[in-house]
Design goal:
The chain is mainly α and 537 residues long. It is built from 21 helices and no strands. The protein folds into two domains: 310 residues, ABC transporter involved in vitamin B12 uptake, BtuC, CATH 1.10.3470; 152 residues, no CATH class.
């Protein structure tokens, strides 16, 4: 018999019992997983891996939405992505060449973000840096190694000086850097255009595009691996990534910049001069953007041409957002966008899909990557559902995603109904529509689909509103609405041979999944009706 001092086995709670040792493959994998989790906790890599996971998920989502857009506009996404991927892989040198300026402009924007600043004028700083490097390249003759070094240095300083003005205005006059950097960007673009078409114009120029004389060969950066595109600028970009990472994470200056970015008040209380950090941060950011322009001129273009950049400074914003303002993330983000750019021409020429689809994918990537921050910003502004998502993401996310599906599905079927109504109007059949419905089965079917599409489009929008303001009935209504979306896509494909079947089927399936998921959470009382109501108010 057991003594009274010995606890009964059944009186010991589950968590007090010693864990049984697992044997076999399951035990091995369990031990490896536990070691992996412990390593993440020890190394503090978990936030970085979450950022990487969200970035990859955003890329996948953007590809999916781009596929829906291509299907809806009559293009084959399978052929488009095949030509994009294999076209880019056939020319790896162009991937890195396209990525090179994006590394610098991405670093410029990311560094400013770390200091709490939005340098939207990297394009203008890039133009000023490229013009300064061009002037040194064709006006001054220096030895081969020294010449590109001096040209790069002048380009860096010119970009930094151009960003210094908004920095001073922000620090000492309170002018918002978004406005000032943008205005300075327009000034830089027009100023360099005037210089290339006027005082610095190539003598005897017959080209319709304004350009300067060609730089001396001593100022040119060497090519890499025998490529006509990839040059030593990519190596400089890798070096810049390392330097910026060390600056932000291993120096006092970087710590002070990040402290000001987190809170100027707290930084001032800690003895940091916020005004000084604002000026220095924008100066360094401008230097990186100027370096981007100098590298492109010395490494590939070898002269300044009006409009040569085509938005590389603005693309740096998307690279910084995708890379989560981390220098290493910026490097991989630039290579990803370089991959898209390298594959865009084969996608257009071989796949028949406009190269502008790459811009759509870039925009979608930024939208999905920035979505959590947008929700956090809305939560700070007091928006009820946003506060609920931030507070209870596991419970709120399915309902929020269901609302998004309702919104997209509602707009899609309303577009179908509006298009069918427009067809009737163009054919002049509206005036005699009732007689035609009674006599013509095709017109009757057409009007029936039109009516259902318009009704359920409006119902879907009502479901979106209901889920956003957390009405309990909204997930229930989302299920039949999703079924109707699928039915509309199927019927329109049979009758009109359209390409809306797959997008509407995908939207319908996702709508039902999120609706059922939301209902399970609500009716299992993981999310009670009262909890939803109070969380959103």
């Amino acid at each position: 018999m057991m003594s009274e001092s010995e606890p009964n086995e059944y009186e010991i709670s589950e968590w007090q019992k010693p864990e049984k040792k697992r044997r076999g493959i399951g035990g091995i994998f369990g031990g490896l997983w536990k070691a992996y989790v412990n390593f993440l906790d020890w190394s503090n890599l978990k936030p970085l891996l979450i950022q990487i996971g969200w970035a990859i998920s955003s890329i996948i989502l953007s590809m999916f939405v781009a596929s829906l857009i291509m299907l809806a506009t009559g293009y084959d996404p399978r052929i488009a992505f095949e030509t994009l991927i294999f076209g880019a892989l056939d020319q790896p040198d162009q991937i890195l060449w396209y990525a090179t300026p994006l590394i610098f402009t991405g670093l410029a924007v990311a560094l400013a973000f770390k200091a709490g600043l939005f340098n939207i004028g990297a394009e203008g700083q890039l133009y000023m840096g490229s013009m300064a490097a061009t002037v040194v390249g064709f006006m001054i003759l220096l030895p081969p190694v020294i010449h590109p070094f001096i040209a790069l240095l002048v380009g860096i300083l010119m970009g930094g000086v151009w960003a210094l003005v908004p920095g001073l205005l922000k620090a000492y006059r309170g002018a918002h850097e978004v406005v000032t950097t943008m205005m300075m960007s327009f000034i830089a673009i027009l100023l360099t255009q005037w210089l290339a078409a006027g005082p610095l114009q190539e003598p005897g120029q017959i080209q319709p595009q304004a350009q300067t004389p060609r730089i001396f060969i001593t100022a040119q950066l060497p090519k890499l691996f025998g490529s006509n595109f990839l040059n030593f600028g990519f190596i400089i970009g890798i070096f810049a990534v390392i330097v910026v990472w060390l600056l932000l994470n291993r120096t006092v200056l970087g710590y002070e910049m990040r402290a000001v970015g987190k809170s100027e008040t707290a930084a001032r209380a800690a003895g940091i001069n916020p005004k000084k950090m604002i000026v220095i941060s924008l100066f360094i950011s401008g230097c990186l953007a100027g370096l981007a322009g100098a590298v492109e001129i010395l490494g590939y273009h070898h002269r300044f041409r009006d409009g040569w950049s085509a938005g590389l400074g603005f693309d740096g914003i998307t690279v910084a957002v995708l890379g989560a303002n981390n220098p290493i993330g910026v490097l991989f983000g630039a290579i990803f966008f370089g991959f898209l750019r390298a594959g865009s021409i084969p996608m257009q020429t071989l796949g028949g899909v406009p190269a502008e689809m790459i811009d759509v994918i870039q925009g979608l990537v930024v939208l999905f990557v920035a979505a959590p921050k947008i929700v956090q910003w809305l939560a700070k502004k007091g928006i009820g559902w946003a506060k609920w998502i931030v507070k209870e993401p596991v419970k709120a996310t399915p309902i929020f995603l269901g609302a998004i599906m309702a919104l997209i599905g509602g707009i899609a079927v309303l577009a179908v109904g509006a298009g069918m109504l427009g067809t009737l109007v163009q054919a002049g059949l509206i005036g005699d529509i009732f007689n035609l419905i009674m006599t013509d089965p095709f017109i009757a079917t057409h009007v029936g689909i039109l009516t259902v599409a318009l009704i359920f489009g409006l119902i879907s929008l009502a479901v979106f509103y209901g889920m956003i303001v957390t009405r309990r009935w909204s997930p229930i209504i989302l299920i039949p609405s999703s079924i109707i979306w699928i039915a509309i896509g199927y019927v329109t494909m049979i009758l009109y041979g359209g390409t809306l079947l797959i997008p509407l089927v995908v939207l319908g399936v996702l709508g039902m999944v999120f609706a059922i998921w939301s209902l399970i959470l609500i009716y299992r009382q993981d999310v009670s009706y009262m909890e939803v109501k109070t969380s959103a108010t």
